[in-house]
Structures are given as structure tokens and as C-alpha cells.
């Protein structure tokens, strides 16, 4: 009933199938699967809430080893600059980011927010008026390809994702002290978090979804109570109170979360 009520008020003009029919269709599909994997315990729990009799195995996403940028020394007495990575829309916390910037301006807080990337066009004007800056679309953006296809093409051609290096360079250019992930929905996997951890900066996110699981295990991860998502002033106060070590973080690589045999070890398939 909650899903139906939400669709009735916010379907964005798209005709969506009935939530009950959708759940029944996916339930039948999953019931025929020999194995069901989820990329995080949070995701597995949400699947089990809908399909309580379904066996779900947690398999964290396989990632290659990634280098980490050395952090700059904290600059005492200056404004704390907060970077938000990627394309920002409503689910990624666009309106919350606007509210944070508006509160910081209203109370004259030493906080500045920069999107290292771009925002949804419906949000750009409000974010700009609130004082949020944007670096803009990345130089590698190809409007003829979606982001997944573009990334796959880049990796196939070069063995790496070109966009990653550009984003990391831009984080340095905006003199960020902290990376914030303002997403207000429980993401199943956040590639932006993988990039955020490579910056060598402290990373803050709400205690929600897969990002919370990874940050809980990271020494520079800071989890914010989800209640702060509806209290911009308290959220800003928490961001200012975060302890950022003066020496920054040692730039040690993030070890690979891979297996020798993807099909055998990750998917448990023998053929």
C-alpha cells in the first residue's frame, strides 16, 4: 500500500506496473534461481523482508586494488570544504545538500559545499542559489552512451576508468577536507564511495545501506545518524564536529577484494 501511494503521487509521468504484480513476478523468478546473491548484508535483509523464505547469500562486490591519494595537512582556522562526488539527483541527496548549504550560509558557518561532478538540471538552480559550486560534467562524458556503457568501453580500451583520475584531480582542485555522501536511500552498492575512499580524505555518509557497511570498517569512515537527513542544522553541526587528523591519512593502497576464480569462488559455480 505504501508503494502504491508513493506511485500515485510521484510517478514522474511514467506508467509503472502494480507493486504487488511486480513483487509476485520477481518472487517467481527468484524462486527458480539456484542461488541468490546480494552485494551487502543490508541488501540481503531488504530482500528477505519481501521474500522471507528466500535463501540469500551475501557476496560483497569484487573490486581491484586501488591506489589512494595522499591527503594534505589540515589547514587550521579555515573553512571546511566538503566535496560531494558524482551526479547528484533527488535520491542522492540533492535537496538535502541544498538545505545544508542554505543553513551554512544563514548561520555563517565555516562550511562550503562543492559537487565534484554535476547535478540534475531540476536542482541546479536551487543548489547554485544556496552557494553550492559544481565542477561540471567530466571531460570523458559521451552523451551517446550511458554511464555504465561508457565505463565498460573505457576499461576495455585502457584497463582503467579514465573518469576516476579526473574526479580525484578535481577533489584536489576544490581543496576538499572531507567527502560527504548525502544519499538518502539505501544504496545496494555505491561506486562513488570507492572513489571517495581513494581520495585519502575522511568520508561521511548516513548510516544506511551498503555504504554504511564499508565505512563502518574504514578508519576514516564517519557514519551520520539517518535522522540528520531531515535536520540540516544538526547535520552541519556534526560535519563541523568531525575530527579530521591534522596529518591526514597514509596513502596505502586499498587491497583487492577479488578471488582467484570469479565463477568458482564468487558465484560458487563449478562449470
From TrEMBL:
SUPFAM superfamilies cross-referenced by the UniProt entry: UDP-Glycosyltransferase/glycogen phosphorylase
Gene3D superfamilies: Glycogen Phosphorylase B (3.40.50.2000)
Domain of life: Bacteria
Name of the molecule in the record: Glycosyltransferase
Native species: Methylobacterium phyllosphaerae
